[in-house]
Amino acid sequence: MKLLLFDDFRLGVLRGDQVVDVSDAVKDIPHTGPGDLMSGLIARFADYRKKIEEAAGRGQPRPVSGVRIRPPLPKPTNIVCMAVNYMEDGTRSEPAPINAFMKSPGAVIGHGDTMVLPDVPATIFEGEAEVALIIGKRATAVPAASVDTAFIIQSLHHLHHRREVFRALGHVVRPGGRLLMVEPHHNLRRVARLFRKYLTTYHAREFWSDERHWATHDFLTRGELKALCRHGGFGRPRLSAFWIPYSRRFVPDPERRFQLERRLGRWPVFRHWSSVLALEARRLPATRSRLSP
What residue ranges of the chain have pLDDT lower than 70? Predict the structure, then answer.
Protein backbone atom coordinates (compact mmCIF):
# COMPACT_ATOMS: atom_id res chain seq x y z
CA MET A 1 0.00 0.00 0.00
CA LYS A 2 1.32 3.42 -1.01
CA LEU A 3 0.06 6.46 0.89
CA LEU A 4 0.35 10.10 -0.12
CA LEU A 5 -0.97 13.54 0.69
CA PHE A 6 -2.54 15.45 -2.20
CA ASP A 7 -4.36 18.70 -3.03
CA ASP A 8 -5.31 20.35 0.30
CA PHE A 9 -3.38 17.62 2.18
CA ARG A 10 -5.98 14.91 1.76
CA LEU A 11 -4.79 11.38 2.57
CA GLY A 12 -4.85 9.08 -0.44
CA VAL A 13 -3.93 5.55 -1.50
CA LEU A 14 -1.94 5.36 -4.72
CA ARG A 15 -2.90 2.59 -7.12
CA GLY A 16 -0.91 2.71 -10.32
CA ASP A 17 -1.72 6.03 -11.96
CA GLN A 18 -4.78 6.68 -9.79
CA VAL A 19 -5.35 7.93 -6.25
CA VAL A 20 -8.26 7.20 -3.90
CA ASP A 21 -9.18 9.62 -1.11
CA VAL A 22 -9.28 7.82 2.27
CA SER A 23 -9.20 10.86 4.55
CA ASP A 24 -12.44 9.92 6.34
CA ALA A 25 -10.91 6.63 7.52
CA VAL A 26 -8.33 8.44 9.66
CA LYS A 27 -10.22 11.55 10.71
CA ASP A 28 -10.32 10.38 14.35
CA ILE A 29 -6.51 10.53 14.66
CA PRO A 30 -5.77 13.60 16.85
CA HIS A 31 -3.99 16.22 14.78
CA THR A 32 -3.70 19.94 14.25
CA GLY A 33 -2.18 19.73 10.76
CA PRO A 34 -1.27 17.30 7.99
CA GLY A 35 2.14 16.55 9.52
CA ASP A 36 0.52 15.47 12.79
CA LEU A 37 -1.96 13.34 10.88
CA MET A 38 0.68 11.42 8.95
CA SER A 39 2.88 11.00 12.03
CA GLY A 40 -0.07 9.67 14.00
CA LEU A 41 -0.98 7.28 11.22
CA ILE A 42 2.58 5.93 10.99
CA ALA A 43 2.67 5.33 14.73
CA ARG A 44 -0.73 3.54 14.69
CA PHE A 45 -0.72 2.07 11.22
CA ALA A 46 -1.52 -1.46 12.40
CA ASP A 47 -4.79 -0.16 13.89
CA TYR A 48 -5.82 1.71 10.73
CA ARG A 49 -4.58 -0.48 7.91
CA LYS A 50 -7.82 -2.44 7.50
CA LYS A 51 -9.93 0.74 7.62
CA ILE A 52 -7.77 2.34 4.93
CA GLU A 53 -7.91 -0.73 2.70
CA GLU A 54 -11.71 -0.86 2.97
CA ALA A 55 -12.01 2.87 2.24
CA ALA A 56 -9.73 2.52 -0.78
CA GLY A 57 -11.91 -0.30 -2.09
CA ARG A 58 -15.07 1.79 -1.81
CA GLY A 59 -13.66 5.12 -2.94
CA GLN A 60 -13.77 6.74 -6.37
CA PRO A 61 -10.30 6.80 -7.97
CA ARG A 62 -8.93 9.96 -9.58
CA PRO A 63 -6.05 10.26 -12.07
CA VAL A 64 -2.87 11.11 -10.19
CA SER A 65 -1.99 13.48 -13.02
CA GLY A 66 -4.96 15.63 -12.00
CA VAL A 67 -3.96 16.17 -8.37
CA ARG A 68 -1.16 18.08 -6.66
CA ILE A 69 1.14 15.74 -4.73
CA ARG A 70 2.18 17.21 -1.40
CA PRO A 71 5.22 16.39 0.78
CA PRO A 72 4.88 12.90 2.29
CA LEU A 73 5.47 14.27 5.79
CA PRO A 74 5.02 18.06 5.97
CA LYS A 75 7.26 19.84 8.48
CA PRO A 76 8.71 16.75 10.21
CA THR A 77 10.07 17.13 13.75
CA ASN A 78 13.65 16.40 12.70
CA ILE A 79 15.50 15.98 9.41
CA VAL A 80 18.85 14.30 10.07
CA CYS A 81 21.40 14.31 7.23
CA MET A 82 24.88 12.83 6.96
CA ALA A 83 27.76 14.91 5.60
CA VAL A 84 30.58 13.43 3.46
CA ASN A 85 29.72 9.93 4.65
CA TYR A 86 30.83 8.13 1.50
CA MET A 87 33.92 7.87 -0.68
CA GLU A 88 34.76 6.78 -4.21
CA ASP A 89 37.36 6.72 -6.97
CA GLY A 90 40.30 7.34 -4.64
CA THR A 91 39.32 10.95 -4.01
CA ARG A 92 39.76 10.28 -0.27
CA SER A 93 42.73 8.53 1.28
CA GLU A 94 40.65 7.44 4.30
CA PRO A 95 37.04 7.71 5.52
CA ALA A 96 35.99 11.09 6.88
CA PRO A 97 34.86 11.39 10.50
CA ILE A 98 31.16 10.69 10.94
CA ASN A 99 29.34 14.01 10.80
CA ALA A 100 25.62 14.78 10.87
CA PHE A 101 23.66 17.97 10.45
CA MET A 102 20.04 19.05 10.67
CA LYS A 103 17.88 20.67 8.04
CA SER A 104 14.93 22.97 8.49
CA PRO A 105 11.54 21.19 8.68
CA GLY A 106 10.37 23.62 6.01
CA ALA A 107 12.92 22.28 3.52
CA VAL A 108 10.65 19.41 2.42
CA ILE A 109 8.57 20.11 -0.69
CA GLY A 110 6.18 18.06 -2.79
CA HIS A 111 6.53 16.49 -6.20
CA GLY A 112 6.87 19.16 -8.88
CA ASP A 113 7.10 22.02 -6.36
CA THR A 114 9.63 24.81 -6.85
CA MET A 115 12.70 25.16 -4.63
CA VAL A 116 12.84 28.78 -3.47
CA LEU A 117 16.40 29.86 -2.68
CA PRO A 118 17.03 32.44 0.03
CA ASP A 119 18.75 35.68 -0.93
CA VAL A 120 22.20 34.72 0.41
CA PRO A 121 25.61 34.74 -1.33
CA ALA A 122 25.84 30.94 -1.63
CA THR A 123 28.06 29.58 -4.42
CA ILE A 124 26.79 25.98 -4.27
CA PHE A 125 23.24 24.72 -3.86
CA GLU A 126 22.48 21.00 -3.69
CA GLY A 127 18.95 19.64 -3.65
CA GLU A 128 18.54 16.03 -2.44
CA ALA A 129 15.74 14.18 -4.21
CA GLU A 130 15.68 11.22 -1.85
CA VAL A 131 14.42 10.30 1.61
CA ALA A 132 16.04 7.28 3.27
CA LEU A 133 13.29 6.55 5.77
CA ILE A 134 10.61 8.08 7.94
CA ILE A 135 10.64 6.96 11.57
CA GLY A 136 7.25 7.17 13.26
CA LYS A 137 8.05 5.26 16.45
CA ARG A 138 10.88 5.58 18.93
CA ALA A 139 13.64 3.06 18.29
CA THR A 140 16.40 3.94 20.74
CA ALA A 141 18.54 1.00 21.94
CA VAL A 142 16.60 -1.59 19.93
CA PRO A 143 16.70 -4.96 21.78
CA ALA A 144 18.44 -7.92 20.19
CA ALA A 145 16.36 -10.14 17.90
CA SER A 146 13.33 -7.82 18.17
CA VAL A 147 12.86 -6.75 14.52
CA ASP A 148 10.84 -8.86 12.07
CA THR A 149 11.85 -7.01 8.90
CA ALA A 150 14.56 -4.43 8.24
CA PHE A 151 14.11 -2.34 5.07
CA ILE A 152 16.96 -0.20 3.73
CA ILE A 153 16.47 1.83 0.57
CA GLN A 154 19.01 3.89 -1.36
CA SER A 155 21.16 4.67 1.68
CA LEU A 156 23.89 2.04 2.19
CA HIS A 157 25.97 3.46 -0.69
CA HIS A 158 26.35 6.66 1.35
CA LEU A 159 28.08 4.75 4.16
CA HIS A 160 31.60 3.38 4.22
CA HIS A 161 31.41 1.53 7.59
CA ARG A 162 29.20 -1.11 6.01
CA ARG A 163 30.38 -4.10 8.01
CA GLU A 164 29.33 -2.32 11.19
CA VAL A 165 25.92 -1.59 9.65
CA PHE A 166 25.34 -5.25 8.83
CA ARG A 167 26.65 -6.36 12.19
CA ALA A 168 24.07 -4.08 13.85
CA LEU A 169 21.34 -5.42 11.54
CA GLY A 170 22.28 -8.98 12.45
CA HIS A 171 21.98 -8.02 16.12
CA VAL A 172 18.45 -6.58 16.00
CA VAL A 173 16.76 -8.79 13.35
CA ARG A 174 15.33 -11.96 14.88
CA PRO A 175 16.31 -15.42 13.55
CA GLY A 176 14.16 -16.04 10.49
CA GLY A 177 13.50 -12.30 10.08
CA ARG A 178 13.95 -10.59 6.75
CA LEU A 179 16.36 -8.03 5.40
CA LEU A 180 15.09 -6.07 2.37
CA MET A 181 17.39 -3.66 0.56
CA VAL A 182 17.37 -1.56 -2.62
CA GLU A 183 20.69 -0.10 -3.72
CA PRO A 184 22.32 1.43 -6.83
CA HIS A 185 24.43 -1.13 -8.67
CA HIS A 186 28.12 -0.66 -9.51
CA ASN A 187 27.49 -2.14 -12.95
CA LEU A 188 29.58 -2.46 -16.10
CA ARG A 189 28.20 0.78 -17.54
CA ARG A 190 29.30 2.67 -14.46
CA VAL A 191 32.76 1.08 -14.53
CA ALA A 192 33.22 2.24 -18.13
CA ARG A 193 31.91 5.71 -17.29
CA LEU A 194 34.28 6.07 -14.34
CA PHE A 195 37.23 4.97 -16.45
CA ARG A 196 36.43 7.63 -19.05
CA LYS A 197 36.04 10.26 -16.33
CA TYR A 198 39.38 9.23 -14.82
CA LEU A 199 41.13 9.71 -18.15
CA THR A 200 39.57 13.12 -18.72
CA THR A 201 39.04 14.58 -15.22
CA TYR A 202 39.58 12.50 -12.09
CA HIS A 203 43.34 11.98 -12.44
CA ALA A 204 44.05 15.72 -12.45
CA ARG A 205 45.39 17.13 -9.20
CA GLU A 206 43.12 20.16 -9.36
CA PHE A 207 40.16 17.76 -9.21
CA TRP A 208 41.08 15.29 -6.46
CA SER A 209 42.70 17.96 -4.27
CA ASP A 210 39.43 19.94 -4.11
CA GLU A 211 37.34 18.65 -1.19
CA ARG A 212 34.13 19.73 -2.91
CA HIS A 213 34.59 16.71 -5.19
CA TRP A 214 34.89 14.23 -2.33
CA ALA A 215 31.17 13.91 -1.69
CA THR A 216 30.47 11.26 -4.30
CA HIS A 217 28.65 7.93 -4.19
CA ASP A 218 30.22 4.50 -3.64
CA PHE A 219 27.81 2.04 -5.26
CA LEU A 220 27.76 -1.68 -4.44
CA THR A 221 28.33 -4.91 -6.37
CA ARG A 222 26.44 -8.18 -5.97
CA GLY A 223 29.51 -9.80 -4.47
CA GLU A 224 29.88 -7.09 -1.84
CA LEU A 225 26.23 -7.39 -0.79
CA LYS A 226 26.54 -11.17 -0.43
CA ALA A 227 29.71 -10.80 1.63
CA LEU A 228 28.02 -8.24 3.89
CA CYS A 229 25.08 -10.61 4.39
CA ARG A 230 27.45 -13.34 5.53
CA HIS A 231 29.15 -10.90 7.88
CA GLY A 232 25.83 -9.92 9.47
CA GLY A 233 24.54 -13.47 9.80
CA PHE A 234 22.04 -13.37 6.91
CA GLY A 235 21.66 -16.35 4.62
CA ARG A 236 19.94 -17.30 1.38
CA PRO A 237 20.34 -13.85 -0.20
CA ARG A 238 18.24 -13.38 -3.34
CA LEU A 239 19.33 -10.60 -5.67
CA SER A 240 17.29 -9.16 -8.51
CA ALA A 241 18.36 -6.41 -10.89
CA PHE A 242 16.21 -3.54 -12.15
CA TRP A 243 16.50 -0.43 -14.34
CA ILE A 244 17.84 -2.43 -17.24
CA PRO A 245 19.02 -0.15 -20.09
CA TYR A 246 16.35 0.75 -22.65
CA SER A 247 13.64 -1.27 -20.83
CA ARG A 248 11.53 1.88 -20.42
CA ARG A 249 11.67 2.51 -24.15
CA PHE A 250 10.41 -0.98 -25.03
CA VAL A 251 7.99 -1.44 -22.10
CA PRO A 252 6.53 1.97 -21.10
CA ASP A 253 4.02 0.57 -18.60
CA PRO A 254 5.73 0.56 -15.14
CA GLU A 255 3.89 -2.49 -13.80
CA ARG A 256 4.71 -4.64 -16.83
CA ARG A 257 8.28 -3.35 -16.88
CA PHE A 258 8.74 -4.27 -13.21
CA GLN A 259 7.51 -7.81 -13.80
CA LEU A 260 9.74 -8.19 -16.85
CA GLU A 261 12.85 -6.84 -15.12
CA ARG A 262 12.25 -9.04 -12.09
CA ARG A 263 12.64 -12.06 -14.39
CA LEU A 264 15.37 -10.76 -16.69
CA GLY A 265 17.38 -9.25 -13.80
CA ARG A 266 18.47 -12.71 -12.62
CA TRP A 267 20.21 -13.51 -15.89
CA PRO A 268 23.94 -12.61 -16.02
CA VAL A 269 23.90 -10.43 -19.15
CA PHE A 270 20.96 -8.29 -18.02
CA ARG A 271 22.06 -8.33 -14.39
CA HIS A 272 25.52 -6.93 -15.10
CA TRP A 273 24.10 -3.90 -16.94
CA SER A 274 21.27 -3.06 -14.54
CA SER A 275 21.36 0.12 -12.45
CA VAL A 276 19.59 -1.06 -9.28
CA LEU A 277 19.88 -4.17 -7.10
CA ALA A 278 17.12 -5.52 -4.86
CA LEU A 279 18.15 -7.86 -2.05
CA GLU A 280 16.13 -10.18 0.18
CA ALA A 281 17.84 -12.29 2.85
CA ARG A 282 16.87 -14.17 6.01
CA ARG A 283 18.53 -13.92 9.41
CA LEU A 284 20.11 -17.26 10.20
CA PRO A 285 19.49 -19.01 13.52
CA ALA A 286 22.07 -18.25 16.18
CA THR A 287 23.52 -21.77 15.95
CA ARG A 288 24.23 -21.31 12.23
CA SER A 289 25.37 -17.69 12.34
CA ARG A 290 28.77 -16.39 13.35
CA LEU A 291 29.03 -12.63 13.37
CA SER A 292 32.49 -11.56 12.33
CA PRO A 293 34.37 -9.35 14.81
Answer: 82-99, 126-139, 211-217, 287-293
Biggest distance spanned by C-alpha atoms of the chain: 63
Cβ contact 233:284 at 8 Å:
yes
Among 237, 216, 245, which Cα is nearest to 170's? 237
CB 217 within 8 A of CB 190: no
Q: What domains can be seen in the chain, in order of their start residue?
A: 2-66 (no CATH), 144-283 (3.40.50.150)
Among residues 198, 157, 173, the alpha carbon closest in space to that of 281 is found at 173
- Beta pairing partners, 232: none
Letter string b/e over residues 160-189, b meaning 16 or more CB atoms within 10 A of that residue's CB = bebeebbbebbbbbeeebbbebbbbbbbee
What are the beta bridge partners of residue 220? 185
Q: State the angle between helix axes of 222-232 and 162-172 in degrees (0 to 180), rounded to the nearest 10.
A: 50
Distinct helix (H) and strand (E) counts, the chain: 9, 10
Q: Which residues pair with 282 in a beta bridge?
A: 178, 235
E-strand ranges in 117-266 read 147-153, 173-184, 234-242
Structure confidence by residue, pLDDT tens digits, 147-165 = 999 988 888 887 778 899 9
